[in-house]
Amino acid sequence: MARIKVENVTLHYPIIGAGDRSVKNRLLNFATGGKITRDSGTVVVTGLDQIDLELNDGDRLGLIGHNGAGKSTLLKVLAGIYTPTNGKVEIEGRIVSTLNITLGFEMEATGFENIYLRGRLLGLTTREIEEKLEEISDFTELGKYLDLPVRVYSSGMLMRLAFAVMTSLESDILLMDEVIGTGDARFIHKAEARLNEFMNKAKIMVIASHSDDVIREFCNSALLLKNGTPFARGEIDEVLEIYESEEYQT
Ligand SMILES: Nc1ncnc2c1ncn2[C@@H]1O[C@H](COP(=O)(O)OP(=O)(O)OP(=O)(O)O)[C@@H](O)[C@H]1O
After folding, report:
1. Is 69 in the pocket of ligand 1 (CB under 6 A)?
2. Which residues lie across from 35 on neighbouring strands?
3. 73 in contact with ligand 1, CB cutoff 6 A
4. Which of 64, 112, 145, 184 to pair with 14, CA 20 to 30 A apart?
């Protein structure tokens, strides 16, 4: 069983070096981004504001909202990358996230070595990696490049490698932002099939996306954020309609 419980979570980004300029006055009227305030002289962006959320097995939540609404910040809090300023996050189950998918690659190490490094970083034992090695390397179709340092890879080649390792894992909770942007058309098609399989295995999934199609295809409910705060939650079509409404847009 997997579970996510988020209680009254707020996350502030203190902006070091914003100076004395009146950032607040200049930006306050924009609908984009989290709220901007000033705390003892320091400018603070509120990435998330009083979020409550409970997800259990079978839940597939789509996070939607304007640029800077807080979608990625919420994913990062769930992934444990950020600690909330206030509130509580309880996670039961193993998390795999697509955030920063290519981060942590050792540029001087070969593709093969990076499969081991990534695997270890993502919690696999050496034996588990060995068992998956052939399947991962076949999927990348990088052939002899796997013996070369990854610094010589193109961004699409690096993405193939990162994607292959990530999707070879088993996760209880899958956290995703838009991931398969890179790669040629044929690889994207192949990656989609593998991604579907990977997603089907997860017990809980949270996807942040600007694509209605992605939300409709992969999720069974949606959470609409505005300036870091929940604005609507529930059935996908209803929440997407609220997203388009004047009430949300103004
Ligand atoms: N590292 C950071 N430092 C300071 N502020 C940040 C940082 N990351 C995000 N923010 C701020 O937090 C707010 C929420 O950003 P977030 O990236 O979560 O939005 P988002 O909904 O994922 O946006 P988008 O759709 O544009 O990707 C924004 O106002 C953004 O400026």
Report:
1. yes
2. 46
3. yes
4. 64
46 alpha carbon – ligand 1 mean position (Å):
9
Cα 47 to averaged position of ligand 1 atoms, centre (Å)? 6
Residue nearest to atom 15 of ligand 1 (CA): 68
Distance CA 112, CA 109 (A): 8
Q: Please give the DSSP secondary-structure letter assigned to residue 32.
A: S
Alpha-carbon distance of 234 to 224, in angstroms, equals: 9
Ligand 1 binding pocket includes 85 (Cβ within 6 Å)? no
Which atom of ligand 1 lies at the shortest distance from residue 32's CA?
29
Best CATH choice for the domain 3-92+211-249 from the list 1.20.120.450, 3.40.30.10, 3.40.50.300, 3.40.50.261: 3.40.50.300
- pTM of the full structure: 0.86
Tens-digit pLDDT string for the chain (250 aa): 999 999 999 999 988 776 555 555 555 445 567 778 877 778 889 999 999 999 999 999 999 999 999 999 999 999 998 999 999 999 999 898 888 777 778 999 999 999 999 888 877 899 999 999 999 999 999 999 999 999 999 988 998 898 898 888 888 999 988 665 556 777 777 888 888 888 888 999 999 999 898 899 889 999 999 999 999 999 999 999 999 999 998 8
Distance 130 CA to ligand 1 centre (A): 38
Q: For residues 155 and 161, what is the distance between their CA atoms, to the nearest angstrom?
A: 10
Where exactly does CATH 3.40.50.300 map onto the chain?
3-92+211-249
Beta bridge pairs of residue 110: 149
Torsion of CA 79, 204, 212, 162, to 10 degrees: 50
